[in-house]
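Write out this protein's structure.
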Amino acid sequence: MGGSYYFDERAAIFRALGNPTRLMILSEISRGKNSLCELINIVKRDKSTISRHLKVLRESNLITVKSSGNRVKYAVSMDCIGDYFLCSNEVINKKIEMRIKLKDIINKEDKMAEKLPDKFAKWHGIDRTKIPWYPEIDADKCIGCKLCFVSCGRGVYDFDLEENVAVVAHKYQCLVGCSTCATICPAGAISFPDKAMIQKLEKEEKVLVRIQEKAKKKKARIDMDKVRKEAMDKLAKMKTSIKYEVVGHVFESALMKSIRDAIKDCKIDVVDISV
């Protein structure tokens, strides 16, 4: 049989396991709860629901059915099924550890929020820590590409080499309104709050009124820079000529060298020499 057959069969098994109720039933059967009545009492579902899930597990060859007199007993088809639960528990515990680790990082950052560098401390006069605009990473989706870590110029991200995932290390250093990292994330692992939150904040804090004076100063600075550049460009194109008389003996052999030495650090050209 081709390799695809086994992948198809594995997919069918995982589909059968992809239901919390069926997983609970299978777990209880692996622990020795082998009758329908026991499963109904433990799982807290009606008889028809339990029977329907048992049928799916049976058709996937995950359990076997044996009749003993008037009783029907269920058992796991393979002992290794118990290993599945052990393995999945390890994966879950690892995930919990990662979330705790990320939570610790966030808590440490919250404690350091008051120590934000001055350039990040305010957004148009508003305390940056009062604005809940920052990225969140879905660790399950993160593929460890490091693109957000490298691309962000404000030091928002760090990278956990052990877990191979990006982490938000300094969330309040994120530029309010910026979501470039989410746009370029190839796995769609980064998310931001709804931008309506920022628009609401702008109205409540009268941000548009706050920035008018700052806008005037910025415009004046841009205009001044433009005028300065135009003046420097004109100056660079201007040509001037000045006549110098150098006193020395006409037959002095080092006369030309003396002239060259005198002008070597000047941005001028010698175009005519007469003696």
